[in-house]
Amino acid sequence: MRPVQHAESPGCYWYTGQKGDWVAGVVELLQLDILQFVSDNAKLGAFIYLDAQQKQPDLSRPLEGVKLLVCGISPEVFSTVVQLECPPGQTVKGFSCAVCPDDTISTALGSASCQPCPLGTVTLGLTAADHDDSSDCKPAADYLLCDKYIGVTNVSGVYPVTINGKQHQVYCDMETDGGGWMLVMNYNRKAGTAPRTKIRSLDDGFPILNSTELGVDESKSFGPGGSWGIMDPLVLGALPKLTEFRFFLRNGAGTMHLKS
Description:
- Helices cover 11% and strands 27% of the residues.
- The protein is an alpha+beta fold.
- The strands form 7 sheets. A 4-stranded mixed beta sheet has the order 3-2-1-4. Strands 11-12-13 form a 3-stranded antiparallel beta sheet, with no helix packed on it. Strands 14-16-15 form a 3-stranded mixed beta sheet.
């Protein structure tokens, strides 16, 4: 099997020439379009030219160690001739690389599956950088959110949750759809106004549900204990297992309740 890595162009891969490789052999092995292969790699400077005008690349030169762009590999060749290698934090999924699943990591370039975190630890975030090192497995006890109160209470209100080992006060909806919902955005304003929302950091705290009466202007309710704004997406992206979102919208014309 010949190892390849994803290139930036869709449907293209990087292949490093091995001992005995030359243009015709690589094209035949990977069943490539020879004109496209030569054109793509000539632009990248993979060939030595036989003329001063650089119009006649030397196609007889051995390609061992040369980084080559190969495009248009068929599924049949992909499954029998080449082996896709993914960067750390990713794993092979079909003919491409995908970020490791929750609570798994991959620490080296290769085609192996992502490995599970040690028992009692979880990964945070959705990018490869959140799954590419053993230190990305964080103690699960450092991240306890509203769902920890499911089966404990069915009363909605402000409860302490744990984020990165520190306690924060959040509003938990423990009544709707099984409970365990954490309030991350609140936007209550006067009719006819459109004040800008506020991106809240962990220092600002999560928005706390205050009034449910329409027309109350909460746009000045900032800071810890305030009700206005939305949590920074970077904060939310670093929380484990946020699998569903609910949106409750209400105005004078009626209500709308959506769930992902």
